[in-house]
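FIELD: query
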Amino acid sequence: MSRNTGIGRSAARSPSVTSSTTQTTADDHDTSVAYQDKLETCGPDPEAQRKQNGESLRQTPSKSRGLYATLSRTLSRTSDTLEPGPAPDGGTKAWMTALVAHLVVFNTWGFINSFGLFQTYYVNTMKIGGESQVAWIGSLEVFILFFMGTFSGRALDAGYFRPTFMLGSVITLFGMFMLSLCKTYWQIFLAQGICIGLGFGCLFVPSLALVSTYFSSRRSMALAITVSGGATGGLVYPAIAERLLPQVGFPWTIRVMAFVQMAVAIVCATFLKVRTQVPLLCPAH
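FIELD: result
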């Protein structure tokens, strides 16, 4: 009697089990079709390929995982999964970025363009060396500025504009205040030639490249506004030196220039921003 009852219950359940199995099969089919569509659109998943080939995925320690991710993102030749989209080619934010980048060039190339004044003062007043020796300070400063652009420009592409800009501002101000304490050739060489050059390299190239991301057809006008900051700074910094050197001397003249650069750097750090990024349809391989 119990056996017949069990058979009856099993027969009663069979339609629901069959229906559930049919639904599961349909869901699996839909998932398979969606996966095939994804493969056709985005290509195969690199991680799945590595698993199929039997390659073991290296596990990064938890403490160094953040550093590993940062280095991987910075050294990668392609952006991860984000793109800024088409350039606005105008608008308040875009033109404001060009004007603020003008101030960045004011701080960097404006100070470099004033080196002729420093060279005359170093040779004739401070007597730290001949004109040929002193010229190496300015030459090295320009070289390091462009050399650092190799790394600071890549940092912008990887999404690290703000940390790079802040680091460059701190290095520049540190070099300026150290320059105000210098009295010998090698002290000035290290402070102005190397330290300030490193700071300028972290500021100039990323800011110039950032302006280019806001414009397409009007890019030449925007970059012209930006790079003209070198001429503006080339007028202001020599005027400060000509006015203050006879009155307060070399140390406080350099400190006044440093405070001017600090104020300009704060304005630039406030308004210079990377464009809002949107997700790609497919992740970069």
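FIELD: remark
Residues 5-21, 55-60, 77-81, 278-285 have pLDDT under 50 and may be disordered.
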